[in-house]
């Protein structure tokens, strides 16, 4: 009996996350949003519904993951990071100066200081240059 109840609770949670995602997309369609307005709306809506954001992803990031033939946890991780970074083309579009500024902002966001901050920013800029 306990297994049945826990399974039902898990199913309701999973359905709730999918429903929240569908709600954000449905609202965007209902408002006839497109392009940057739609992206901005979905980003805010998914932030308001964190479970939906984990499920939703970004179509461009999903396509990039499919191109790289990722699956399972690797795909989920890639899509989540890609979505947070703003899409697969954002890193390529940013000039090197912006990479240093972005890395500095990320280190400040993580509240890094001293050698940890220096090391993080150095690696971050190198990774941005490699892309």
What does this structure look like?
The chain is mostly helical. The protein has helices spanning 2-30, 35-48, 50-56, 59-67, 72-85, 90-93, 96-109, 114-130. Helix 1 (2-30) packs across helix 3 (50-56) and helix 7 runs antiparallel to helix 8 (114-130).
Global morphology? globular
Report Rg.
18 Å
Order of helices and strands: HHHHHHHH
Helix content: over 70%
Euclidean distance between termini CA atoms? 53 Å
Question: Helix/strand-derived class?
Answer: mainly alpha
The unreliable regions are 7-20
Mean pLDDT: 73
Please tally the helical runs, counting DSSP H or I stretches of 4 or more residues.
8
Task: Please tell me the total number of domains.
Answer: 3
Largest beta sheet, briefly?
none
Number of strands: 0
As a percent range, the share of strand residues is under 5%
Features:
131 residues, mainly alpha, 3 domains, globular
SSE topology:
Layout: H1 2-30, H2 35-48, H3 50-56, H4 59-67, H5 72-85, H6 90-93, H7 96-109, H8 114-130
Quick summary:
Helices cover 82% and strands 0% of the residues.
